[in-house]
Amino acid sequence: MTAITAPQRTHLDWLESESIHILREVAAECERPVLLFSGGKDSCVLLRLAEKAFRPAKFPFPLLHVDTGHNFPEVIAFRDQRAQELGERLIVRSVQDSIARGSVVLRHENDSRNAAQATTLLEAIAEFAFDACIGGARRDEEKARAKERICSFRDEFGQWDPKNQRPELWNLYNTRVHPGENIRVFPISNWTELDIWQYIAREELALPSIYYSHVRSVVRRKGLLAPVTPLTPAREGEVVEEVRVRFRTVGDVSCTCPVQSDAATPADIIAETAVTTITERGATRMDDKLNEASMERRKKMGYF
Known about the structure:
Layout: H1 11-29, E1 33-36, H2 41-54, E2 63-67, H3 73-86, E3 90-94, H4 95-101, H5 117-128, E4 132-134, H6 143-146, E5 151-154, E6 182-185, H7 193-203, E7 214-221, E8 224-227, E9 241-246, E10 259-260, H8 266-273, H9 280-284, H10 294-300
Parallel strand pairs: 1-2, 1-4, 2-3, 4-6
Antiparallel strand pairs: 5-6, 7-8, 7-9, 9-10
Helix pairs in contact: 1-2, 2-7, 7-8
């Protein structure tokens, strides 16, 4: 008699299973959750996990993007196309609208709007009375994100206190909030950048083209390759170079930098990521280099 053995589960199967459990838990426990979708690779993975958690039904929450107005056009086009393909509701709220209302004030017209996203996000949470925001942050991205629990409680002012977090025992998550409070939910907290790319390869997920190697005009600034765009022109004395690059993360044009790379496929990027020694945000984000605690300070104020 031949013994029947169950197929062996991979580490991606375990991560996927945990994330689907979290998504279903939030959908069951929270009254008005929303999933943050920027068009980036992590939120694309979240969409696939949501498909596996809830299809053939529609998602039990809308999608939300806080648009700085300074995003890469390839990413915005991909965002809209993906939401349309899925047939899901996409809500877009703009930092520019917050500026027009006076709730966001920039010192200079061309200042980075990245940190200002927190204000627009909190305004959207109040407008729609969201009690849970599901995001694609991972603990390996940056040390402040490593402090986050799966469910991070925020008070009625939208603030997060890293020293006052709820315990999460086994797979039990406390999603209870008082009126005005909300929680951030990170179903892929336990994933690494390498896990994300291995999952993208396994699931054959589409991504914005800027994640893959292409030639771009850049200048070398503060140890990074800063993209040269109409919003971020070269400064006096800087030399513009044409370099083959790709983006490890996508965000505001004013502070998101590519890395030099020939990786043109998920398999190439997996090989590249496996040997890198620099964190994702450390290699790509100018705003995180301003201060050792830049990210934590912004997260306390409501930034994701």
